[in-house]
Design brief:
Length: 205
């Protein structure tokens, strides 16, 4: 009850807070994998390298916007060495290629409207994609309001560091809006002077 009251106070303080979506589920998936255990700045740098190396060049009035993000087919056709040459560690390069193959063949759809539980299971069967990454993608790409990355270090810290199991049990009372609870808990520990969002700092795969 104390935790629920704390969460209620957080929600009351930010009544307009929403779960952000994603323009492209595959791009979001790649970015989430790239961001595992690195800073936001490093993840952005790596994503830019991927876009420049494999994306289609485009002309825009914006100097920083020069390439479309690569298609899953393009990444699936690349070799692991092509990705590691960009500074991506081998395990994450292989995870990105595995994700690309599943999306390119149509076996995996990272967009709203598909069986969420089946998609979560499919994601977690891929190398390098664990509970955190699968649920974060469910929030952003699938638009699932009940996604909840219960292994997240920031969420646990915001609630006094319960075990992941205890947190999952507590969060059962927040269904079917656990993704919104996650957003409020992330924001509760965010440093307003920082340009890096809390939810992208501490993750467990």
């Amino acid at each position: 009850q104390q935790i629920d009251a704390h969460l209620g106070a957080l929600a009351a303080a930010r009544p307009g807070l929403r779960v952000p979506g994603a323009f492209d589920g595959f791009e979001m998936g790649v970015r989430v994998i790239l961001g595992q255990q690195v800073s936001v700045k490093a993840a952005l740098t790596l994503a830019g390298r991927v876009a420049a190396a494999f994306g289609e060049p485009i002309e825009t009035p914006f100097p920083a916007l020069t390439h479309l993000f690569p298609t899953p087919e393009r990444i699936a056709a690349a070799e692991t060495a092509d990705l590691t040459a960009l500074g991506i560690v081998r395990a994450r390069a292989e995870a990105i290629r595995a994700l690309a193959r599943e999306v390119a063949t149509g076996r995996l759809r990272l967009e709203p409207g598909y069986n969420t539980e089946a998609t979560l299971g499919h994601l977690k069967s891929l190398p390098g994609i664990g509970e955190w990454t699968a649920h974060y993608l469910a929030m952003r790409a699938l638009g699932w309001s009940d996604a909840f990355p219960h292994t997240d270090l920031v969420i646990r810290k915001a609630l006094g560091n319960p075990t992941p199991r205890a947190l999952l049990e507590q969060a059962d009372a927040w269904r079917p809006w656990r993704a919104y609870a996650a957003m409020h808990l992330w924001r509760s520990l965010e440093d307003p002077t920082s340009s890096e969002a809390s939810e992208t700092k501490d993750r467990t795969g």
